[in-house]
Design brief:
Order of helices and strands of chain B: EHEEEEHEEEEHEEEEHEEEEHH
Radius of gyration of chain A: 13 Å
Largest sheet of chain B: 9 strands, mixed
Number of domains of chain A: 1
CATH topology of chain A: Ubiquitin-like (UB roll)
Number of strands of chain A: 7
Shape of chain A: globular
Distance between the termini of chain A: 41 Å
Mean pLDDT of chain A: 86
Strand order of the largest sheet of chain B: 14-15-16-13-9-12-11-10-17
CATH class of the largest domain in chain B: Alpha Beta
Low-confidence stretches of chain B: none
Distance between the termini of chain B: 33 Å
CATH class of chain A: Alpha Beta
CATH superfamily of chain A: Beta-grasp domain
Low-confidence stretches of chain A: 96-109
Structural class of chain B: alpha/beta
Shape of chain B: globular
Radius of gyration of chain B: 18 Å
Number of helices of chain A: 3
Number of helices of chain B: 6
Strand content of chain A: 25-35%
Oligomer: heterodimer
Largest sheet of chain A: 5 strands, mixed
CATH architecture of the largest domain in chain B: Roll
Helix content of chain B: 10-25%
CATH architecture of chain A: Roll
Number of strands of chain B: 17
Chain lengths: 109, 302
Amino acid sequence: MARVYRVWVDGEERVFACGPDQDLLAAAVVQGVRSIKRGCRGGGCGMCKVRVVDGTYDLGKSSVAVLPPAEREQGYVLACKTIPTSDLNIRVTKNNLRRRDGDGGNSDS
Amino acid sequence: MGIMRLGRVEARVLDLEKSIDYYTNVIGLQLMARENGRAYLKAWDEEDHHSLILIEADHPGLVHMAFKVRYEHELDEYEKALERYGVRVNRVSKGTRLAEGQAIRFELPTGHLVELYHEIERVGNGLKLNPDPYPENLKGIAPPALDHVLITGEDVQGATNLLMNVFDFHMSERVVTLDGEQLLAVWLFRTNTPHDIAIIKGPNGKLHHFAFNLGGWNDILRAADCLAKNNVAFDVTPTRHGITRGTTVYFFDPSGNRNEVFSGGYIPCEDFTPVTWTEDQLAKGIFYHLRELNERFTAALT
């Protein structure tokens, strides 16, 4: 049965709840957690990229241009496309925009 | 003569079915055809077969944008003009995509693929004999037409020069550095709207948004209601642009491609004197009321 999971934000005195079928970003936004950046909310722009340090989750369709397979293997996710399947410990990445800008523009198309 | 308008945009989407549902039921475009993994859509007042093509991919963004020229023979003329300008041109043969004739294709200095075409199947809008002002059974926002595209790239000046020198685009507005030395953003038109294409400084090859036209402010508000009702992610709720004087809503499609509905603005002619904004006043230019730039507006690109 779907349940509510608790999400710890690493380095912040902050825990928020993520309801069944609710994505990490939506849950963070409605509970006033502002440290995860809000972008397109469609898995396209990469602004809400965070790293899951501990826990399990389902990741929906996300752009490989902003979340390449190697990063996925290291636990990086787009919060807007991440549905927890356990309690989570996440780390907000500070440099995701810089990395995204360096992806070579249209060379990936 | 020459380019008449932005005729079509081809966008990559992460999930074709979800995107077709969004573009038909929330935006309210008409699904004209599906073939070879592409969906072809048009707005209700457009007479050509399609103005938006969706194709599924592992990342969103712009495949190409295309401008429609008045005459077929102009493709040859522009091909020569582009080559004289030092731009490599490819031919896209008829039948490459559905309902389209041949096109010429080249790359802007900002890395975006642009096509010029004349031939495309004419399906009409059904409103040419003793017509009503709009058809029955429109869904969602139901914009009458595609309006413009905004792209990002490093060489704003180079792309601007090409578009103005080769295709006789006219400048409506620009953003420059305080010393006036560097062009940071530009709004260009071939129609008599404030922009058919705009370019802002940023990473090469990226899409900032493509926009649909709406009749007025009431339609902008109603569009925002429709988006909220359908849980669409907003970027910016209804407001006015300083640049173009238009009214606007920005929001995101299910793959994170930014869309806009745009209404109003002035009606420029070819002799329009461009409006200049200095970089320190950019926020007033973009969001006339709030005068704050949010990071999302400049950083969320596909």
